[in-house]
Design brief:
- InterPro entries: ABM_dom, Dimeric_a/b-barrel.
- By secondary structure, the protein is an alpha+beta fold.
- The chain is about 40% helix and about 35% strand.
- The chain has a single domain, classed as Alpha-Beta Plaits (2-Layer Sandwich).
- It has a four-stranded antiparallel beta sheet with strand order 2-3-1-4.
Amino acid sequence: MFGLVVRFTCKDDTTAEAFDQLIGETIEGIKAHEPGTLVYTVHKVEGEPLLRIFYELYRDRAAFDFHEEQEHTKRFLGARDDLLADVEVDWLDLQVGKVTTP
């Protein structure tokens, strides 16, 4: 499996609202077209209204590469920069855990 955690910090309340809308549109494309994307979740953080944390888990690196090539992902990547003050990415290497796959 292949995964990452991404911390997005929006510029302000207005951009956070626009970012959330962009996320919603992107998630629909992921659900409809990406069988190799096992988990793609977005979290708000209590007490941090401008912060969003993504947790992404893919079947393998090829599934991640497929995700990156999709039009909905390209649209998200192109539109997000105007809305964000910061992006932090942590690439994950699964060590141990319990994972249920479909």
